[in-house]
Amino acid sequence: MMTSISLPYGKQQISFHVPExxxxxxxxxxxxxxxxxxxxxxxxxxxxxxxxxxxxxxVSAGDKVLILVDDYTRATPVWLILPHLxxxxxxxxxxxxxxxxxxxxxxxxxxxxxxxxxxxGKDIYGHYRTEQHDCNDKxxxxxxxxxxxxxxxxxxxxxxxxxxxxxxxxxxxxxxAGYAGGWKLIVPGVAALETIDTNHTLATLSFRNYGSxxxxxxxxxxxxxxxxRVDQFINVVLCQDGQIARVFAGAPAEIHVxxxxxxxxxxxxxxxxxxxxxxVSAYPYDIDFYQAIRAIEYADIIVRxxxxxxxxxxxxNGIGSEDFYRLLVxxxxxxxxxxxxxxxxxGKVTYNVLGYFxxxxxxEKQLFxxxxxxxxxxxxxxxxxxxxxxxxxxxxxxxxxxPKARLAVLPVGSATIPRLVxxxxxx
Length: 427
Description:
The protein is of the alpha/beta class. The chain folds into 2 domains: 2-29 and 273-421, Alpha-Beta Complex (2-enoyl-CoA Hydratase, Chain A, domain 1), CATH 3.90.226; 38-265, Rossmann fold (3-Layer(aba) Sandwich), CATH 3.40.50.11440. The protein has 13 helices and 20 strands. The two termini are 26 Å apart.
């Protein structure tokens, strides 16, 4: 008997079928109930902030206010949350011309106009001063000091030129920081490339430790972020369909602790033993291969050595960067080469960390890709075996592993951390 499975694929769905006898499980994020009224939930959180006063108790007439928002790669419904914050600022007689929106791009490219419109909403975009952080623009950065791990902290100068600072983001799995949210709006969000690179050298310790917020990279982010005087952040935890489950407002550290407690119940999913094959959609981070790698990392947790991972992603923006592509195709690259690049700052550290992880996984497992936005030649040169059809590719992989192959599916692979349970292991 065959089982038909549908995966998120960009803004569409893509389906395939597998023999029911081979299917160990379809590992969706755990279903949590969406809040019945998102507007009421946002107001509830802002009325009862964790570790801070309410907006109305913080802001005064004439204050210059900076609001950080995350970028096009993140699912945060900023367009839904931001009007609530702006209404409260308006009630405090803060003028629209004294409000600046700063997009926390980190090392990502700037948002396009259409992406900004989608992120901020048509009623807000164009009505407030909006800036996008550039991690390479040294003239726009201010130095705050060193963390205890030696990270030099440069941040966007606007953080020092406004009276009040707010931020909007969301909490979901991060392959190097355990979970997003909290101080990540500052580092890497509005930090200098040198700050991000130094912090991300610590991410090499995150390999196969996904979901932990006690690792050095995350702790360094928290320490660096806390050098900035922030008044209040708003973070959300989303359901698997993108609706708001719960909103947290208050001090970045406190809302992150509270939010991660819920996020772990959503995104960490049990898998009964290792499998031969994982089919993983890179949704919701499937715009390019740079973003999609986290789906490979999470699938790697449950696939036995010698097993196969088939990644499904449209990758409309291709590999994601020509520099990243050149790094991955450099001949003879091994894990130590990436580590030495990181130590010497030879190329962007974030690229080398992902190259390091990818090389370690590729040495143990076979990687396949249904990624129409990337040419077959490009995939082959980075060690991914292209498949022209999801179904035919899966059929060939299953045939290679034999009739008793165990298979698991991760439909939201970039935001699902599988946890092995039980004792059944593949010999």
